[in-house]
Amino acid sequence: MGGTRDLPGSRPLEVDREEKEGLQLVGPFHSDQWGTFTTVWRFEVADGRILRLDVAAAA
Q: Where are the domains of the chain?
């Protein structure tokens, strides 16, 4: 991966944990600007489509 559309030079590295029946993923994220840190990816799904994705630094 070469980066995300909104954050060039950044990319998720792997999934360490899957929670909430696969709707929450936890794992390291790398940014050329800020380094590598743990993130939480929370998906909201309805009718087989992703309605919302929240990405935050994990506590």
A: 10-57
CA dihedral sign, ordered 42, 21, 31, 52: negative
CA pair distance 54, 33, nearest whole angstrom = 20
Residues in contact with 18: Cβ distance below 8 Å, sequence separation at least 6, in sequence order: 24, 25, 26
**Looking up tokens 């792997």, which residue turns up?**
14
Give how far Cα 56 sits from Cα of 42, 47, 48, 59, Å. 9, 25, 23, 9
**Is pTM, for the whole model, over 0.90?**
no
**Rg of the Cα trace of the chain?**
12
Residue 30: predicted pLDDT: 86
